[in-house]
Amino acid sequence: MAAHPSATLIRQSYEALNVGDTAGALAAWSDGIIWHERVGKTWAMAGDYLGKQAVAGLFGGLPGLGLTAMRAEVHDILASDGHVVALMDMRMERGELTYLSHEVHIWHVVDGKATEVWLTSQDPDAFDAFWAATL
């Protein structure tokens, strides 16, 4: 059975991000995408980002916070015409620090473009500690 088009759209977006192709990921998102960055409880960059430019700014600011590597490893994707749920492991590195957590990302898809995403983490305290640590 072929993958649902919404699943393919989101999987390709993660694949692009994993190789540093922000433009490739942005191609899967609507111009007005709403990105709910809520993985941690106290992270300074937590919040809602409206539009491709704002989300690109979020990603573009991470190296300035010491991020040296990030990889979203998808375990499974559940998809319908309107929604995608991605079950995944997120791995990030800052200097000698490593963050690894199971995450669930819930995407809203309209007319073949991602329009909104909510990110959740198994361990928001570990996420906050990773970003709060002094390098």
Structure description:
- The chain has 135 residues and is of the alpha+beta class.
- It has a single domain (5-132), classed as Nuclear Transport Factor 2, Chain: A (Roll).
- The chain contains four helices and six strands.
- The chain has helices at 5-18, 22-26, 52-61, 124-132, and strands at 29-37, 47-50, 67-79, 83-94, 97-110, 113-121.
- It has a six-stranded mixed β-sheet with strand order 2-1-6-5-4-3.
- The model has no long low-confidence stretch (mean pLDDT 94).
Topology, number of strands: 6
Would you list the SSEs in sequence order as H and E? HHEEHEEEEH
Largest sheet: 6 strands, mixed
In which range does the helix fraction lie?
Answer: 25-40%
Task: Sum up the overall morphology in one term.
Answer: globular
How many structural units, i.e. domains? Answer: 1
User: Which regions contain 5 or more consecutive residues with pLDDT less than 50?
Assistant: none
Can you list the strand order of the major beta sheet? 2-1-6-5-4-3
What is the CA-atom radius of gyration, in angstroms? 14 Å
How does CATH name the architecture? Roll
Mean pLDDT: 94
Strand content: over 45%
Number of helices: 4
Protein structure class: alpha+beta
- So what's the CATH class? Alpha Beta
Span of the ends, CA to CA = 47 Å
CATH topology: Nuclear Transport Factor 2, Chain: A
